[in-house]
Amino acid sequence: QVQLVESGGGLVQAGGSLRLACTVSRRTFSWNYIGWFRQAPGKEREFVATVKWSGADSIYYADSVKGRFTISRDNAKNTVYLQMNSLKPEDTAVYYCNTHPPEPGYWGQGTQVTVSS
Question: What is the mean pLDDT of each run of 10 residues along the chain (117 residues)?
Answer without folding.
Answer: 95 98 88 95 97 90 98 94 98 97 94 97
